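Continuing the series of single-chain predictions for the mutant panel. This is the parent chain; the variants come on the following pages.
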Amino acid sequence: MVASTLARLIGSHEAETQADLGRLTALARTTVAAALDVLERSGVIRCVGSRPTPGRGRPADRLGLNPRFGLVLVADLGAHAGRLSIHDLGEDLLAARNVRLAVTDGPISVLARVTADFRAMLAEVQASTRPLVFVVGLPGPMDTRRGMPVKPPIMPGWDACG
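Parent structure:
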């Protein structure tokens, strides 16, 4: 859990050094160091430079997510079309495509189509890393706590689909 929290803070650019992480989380320096060691040995994070420190200490290592560790797949779906994109963890866009679809066809049909398109896109970019996150935006009300659509008026069959 600690490593996940630290990776999120690094990825969101809220923290860029071990000291920043300690201040933001109020965790002991040894706890932060141990979690960072796990993240670095796993290839999740890497040093991306240094930042001068006030006083006479050595510069602090700036941390960043390793772009090659994994991919983020994003599907922004509307009522009649969608925009699919693939990004690395460095936030670089690797591939994108617009697709025609109808959310009225239901979640099984629409998500099968999106999955097939993502598989084709991954083959096109010859991704050597694996998808880590799949983000879907839908054109209807959502229960964000459960991650499910709630009685979407233009999306029959999607209610509580999660």
